[in-house]
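*Target chain*
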Amino acid sequence: MGSRGGHCYYELGSPLTCLLTPDITGLQPYGVQGAGPGWLASPLAASGLANQERAHPAGTRRGVARQRRDRSVSQVAHRGPFHRRSEERFQLVITIGIDPHKISLTAVAVGPDGQPHPPIRLVVDKSTPAALLTWATQWPERQWAVEGATGLGRGIAQQLISAGEFVLDVPAKLAARARLLGSSSARKTDVADAISVAAVALHNRRLNRVQVEDHTTIMRLLTDRREDLVAEHTRWINRLHVLLRDLHPGGAEVRLDTIDAAALLAKIRPVTAADQQRKQIARDVVRDLKRHEASIKELEKQLRAAVAASGTTLTQIQGIGFLTAAKILALTGAIRRFPNQEHYASYTGTAPIDVSSGEQQTHRLSRRGNRQLNAAIHVAAVTQARDPGPGRDHYRRKIAEHKTAKEARRSLKRRISNAVYRRILADQQRLQLEAA
């Protein structure tokens, strides 16, 4: 271990020593490199999971401190372990990893040197947050890392946030990768999972900080409920078509609604007992469909009000109505977790994948990203390509450049994705200024 010019460098396997440069501001340490004892540090750093800067001798990293100072905190959700600013240096804090389950959770505190403390296992009930916070009082300077804070870990993560704690969301895939690459054993235990969650939070600087649920969560709940009812409505419509096909020669019209179905059933005079039962079931299905339609209309009314209350201007984009806007806002969440529109395009699956080779420059369709968000943008792209406007002009310009229809539509989707990102970001900045 040595230092040159105020920087630090190390050899893998040596104890962790952190030398911090005093001119770095924000929430970023310098020289927090994974060489702690045990399996927690060096395998992560070697595998690429540690998304961090390696320390180099002076003169080889010119301008790094200045770039870090200029980097906006709002562009990066998280950069390494959370610190509290002191007069002369940053103090690293304990990272508590949580492996949540439906009826229990396991928590392990891991120091900045990668050394785990004795774990704790709690049954999930109304007293769990208080018990967990009481146990954690032995580490006043701490941060929490919850696996799947939008899934099984949502409850404990939100309760910790309500208590004023700093909580990070660790994706399950990252935690599993850390466990597999960081241990020579294939054993999987709750304690090992909690340690791997803490290890990811300790080394990965791009984790999202868990925020208090806001209007986007409400939109997500409403849109999910509406989509469930629409799918159920479609299923029962298909079932009604089967019953009417057996009761009425030729069946019913393809575009069937509950009014036409009730009128058709009133004309049917069943002869056999089986047909009488079919007619009775068909009447029950029509009643269920009417109830579903009433619920869908009520949800759409609530979604329209939620979109209006959010103050978004997404509906000003051609092809995006209030339903599509609600879905985009719900699936996007906090827009500042995306540093720029390129990251957002990758999340929406509208960023093409480069598959060029030699002199041939080509890209292929990305199947990654959030497919529901991609589908919402696809609807807007189809509308813009069909109706007059800048979108159709862009689409036709790509066709004139000898692009296929699919390639032109993909280009338009990327253009819409960028516009959506800029709109949401501008709306958030405008609302913040109005609130101030």
Notes: The longest strand covers residues 94-100. The chain has 14 helices and twelve strands.
